[in-house]
């Protein structure tokens, strides 16, 4: 992946997927780098190492399983947000090898961390709404949709980066609208326009 804009597209898509499941995209990067589909940034080669692969696989499995435990899913969201942002930053930094370091880390923090944080925040609100409306009975459906989205977007990011960027952009718009609606709903009545 020698093209810097393409690498940025991969990074943003992986970061958006990190907002759905933090460890799934990093596991995808690890597997893709080991298979030769992704070139890792110098200094970030550890992501493709055997130790990281095992650790990411275990972390992804535990994260996925935890979201199917009724009371733990909502509690996990408090921890998942900073983890997702960090995963988004790491994923973007790991795949943008063609960028100069200052630009790489700026893109990783702003675009990668921002995309992961926005999507994660929207999923937290979705889960809270699901819990409120169904007493948590629909949360496994939400968890399954989030997992499917994380896996699909991660695979798409590696295989078809521009398509993944389009999907990630759509996901970010949907998440942004959800958060904006929520913010308007909580605004004091005198401040609405």
Provide a descriptive summary of the structure in words.
- By secondary structure, the chain is mainly alpha-helical.
- The chain has one domain (4-182).
- The protein is built from seven helices and no strands.
- Helix 2 (23-34) runs antiparallel to helix 3 (50-66), helix 2 crosses helix 4 (70-95) and helix 5 crosses helix 7.
Task: Record keyword descriptors for this entry.
7 helices, 193 residues, 0% strand, 79% helix, mainly alpha
User: SSE string, helix = H, strand = E?
Assistant: HHHHHHH
Structural class: mainly alpha
Extended strand count = 0
- As a percent range, the share of helical residues equals over 70%
Supply Rg. 17 Å
Q: What's the shape?
A: globular
Task: Write down the domain tally.
Answer: 1
Cα(first) to Cα(last) distance is 46 Å
SS strand fraction: under 5%
DSSP summary: helix tally: 7
Give the low-confidence spans.
none
The major sheet is characterized as: none
Integer average pLDDT: 91
């Amino acid at each position: 992946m020698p093209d810097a804009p393409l690498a940025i597209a991969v990074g943003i898509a992986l970061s958006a997927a990190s907002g759905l499941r933090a460890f799934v995209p990093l596991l995808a990067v690890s597997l893709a780098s080991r298979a030769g589909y992704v070139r890792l940034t110098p200094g970030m080669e550890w992501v493709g190492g055997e130790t990281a692969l095992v650790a990411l696989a275990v972390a992804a499995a535990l994260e996925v399983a935890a979201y199917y435990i009724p009371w733990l899913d909502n509690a996990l969201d408090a921890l998942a947000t900073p983890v997702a942002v960090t995963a988004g930053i790491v994923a973007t930094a790991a795949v943008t090898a063609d960028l100069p370091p200052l630009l790489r880390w700026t893109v990783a923090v702003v675009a990668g961390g921002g995309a992961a944080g926005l999507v994660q925040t929207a999923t937290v609100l979705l889960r809270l709404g699901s819990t409120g409306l169904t007493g948590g009975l629909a949360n496994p459906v939400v968890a399954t949709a989030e997992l499917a989205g994380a896996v699909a977007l991660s695979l798409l990011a590696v295989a078809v980066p521009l398509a993944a960027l389009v999907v990630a952009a759509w996901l970010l718009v949907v998440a942004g609208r959800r958060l904006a609606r929520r913010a308007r709903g909580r605004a004091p009545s005198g401040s609405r326009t």
